Amino acid sequence: xxxxxxxxxxxxxxxxxxxxxxxxxxxxxxxxxxxxxxxxxxxxxxxxxxxxxxxxxxxxxxxxxxxxxxxxxxxxxxxxxxxxxxxxxxxxxxxxx
Length: 97
Hints:
Blueprint: E1 12-17, H1 20-26, E2 30-35, H2 40-47, H3 54-63, H4 81-96
Antiparallel strand pairs: 1-2
């Protein structure tokens, strides 16, 4: 196989927050979208997220998207901390596979 065959445009994939505590608190599962492929600098930030939380906030704004690929976290719009942390966890799990 040639490396060029693996190169393709990123696709939006749905991610579902189904953690029991969050579903109980908000009344249902919560969905968001991410692109299935990310630039290398995003993976570096994810790998260092526990050591450097300052980069996580900026990174999250670019990764958490709606079904149309538009950013959910924008200036003036923030997520509850429990939901945000679960998003970061699920993004790390999803992109790490």
